[in-house]
Inverse folding.
């Protein structure tokens, strides 16, 4: 048992370090070829922070572990919204841009509505089993392309940029290769150890994915948002979380479904509804008390709600 948890922890370290090295190497090479910081921030860096979720899901898709594929995405979005934003707001009240409130939060809500719609073949079409098909995955990826286009337009208009460190070409290539190895090995062993832990405790793979795996793959977002809050950059703290939630559904889950159709367990509908509920709660919080600010008490309530959700998951099994 301890061995499996040890493998899981080491795998998370490989995933996170691999994503970091891939971002550093890719960003440096892109900068050398004159690609703007804006494009680097929106592509390499953004994709890099979502790489742990993506690699875990790709490995799970290949292995046919559908519960991990969907559970990881839902669990990551719940951890992002409740745990990461909650902790960040406790550190520093988070002032949110009006565009994020009126466009990006509703877009993240749309993403989970799309997931709930394409996944419920039994409920909507009277099917025998719920499948997120390759066509569903392509639809999600199309939504993702629209989101990237919108984000690029906003960033260009506001002149936002991502600071990029430049390394030698050989060092950059070494970073990319090491990052790919770290992501590949980390993704493989996260999935295998999570399945083994589920078997050891006689619990569902979805429970492990919704808790341990989702928190582990959300560590890059947690680190980014907490550091941003400490440094008093609320835009980064919030934008990182909302953007990640949209990435997880449209990009990570969409790509996973294209690789291999994903079986959706009806029990996960509760978690889909929970993501909808907490996204609406986050939107409502923008109009309660200090407008467009996640206050400390609101952050504490989000973090407390996450603890309650984990307790519920454990009781549900």
């Amino acid at each position: 048992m301890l061995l499996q948890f040890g493998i899981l922890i080491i795998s998370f370290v490989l995933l996170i370090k691999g994503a970091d090295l891939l971002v550093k190497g890719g960003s440096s090479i892109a900068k050398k070829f004159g690609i703007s910081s804006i494009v680097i921030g929106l592509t390499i860096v953004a994709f890099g922070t979502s790489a742990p979720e993506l690699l875990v899901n790709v490995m799970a898709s290949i292995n046919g572990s559908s519960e991990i594929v969907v559970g990881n995405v839902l669990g990551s979005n719940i951890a992002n919204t409740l745990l990461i934003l909650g902790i960040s707001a406790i550190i520093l009240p988070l002032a949110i841009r009006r565009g994020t409130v009126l466009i990006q939060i509703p877009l993240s809500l749309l993403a989970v509505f799309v997931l709930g719609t394409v996944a419920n073949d039994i409920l909507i079409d009277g099917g025998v089993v719920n499948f997120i098909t390759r066509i569903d995955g392509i639809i999600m990826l199309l939504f993702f392309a629209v989101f990237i286009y919108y984000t690029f337009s906003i960033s260009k208009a506001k002149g936002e940029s991502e600071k990029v460190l430049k390394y030698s070409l050989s060092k950059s290539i070494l970073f990319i290769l090491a990052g790919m190895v770290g992501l590949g090995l980390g993704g493989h062993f996260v999935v295998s150890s999570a399945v083994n832990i589920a078997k050891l405790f006689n619990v569902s793979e979805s429970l492990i994915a919704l808790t341990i795996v989702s928190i582990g793959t959300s560590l890059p977002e947690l680190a980014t948002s907490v550091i941003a809050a400490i440094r008093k950059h609320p835009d980064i703290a919030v934008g990182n979380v909302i953007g990640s939630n949209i990435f997880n559904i449209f990009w990570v889950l969409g790509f996973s479904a294209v690789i291999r159709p994903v079986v959706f367990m009806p029990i996960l509908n509760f978690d889909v509804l929970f993501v909808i509920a907490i996204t609406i709660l986050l939107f409502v919080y923008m109009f309660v008390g200090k407008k467009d600010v996640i206050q400390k008490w609101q952050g504490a309530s989000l973090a407390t709600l996450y603890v309650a959700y984990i307790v519920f998951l454990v009781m549900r099994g």
Observations:
- The longest helix spans residues 169-200.
- The chain has one domain: 2-316.
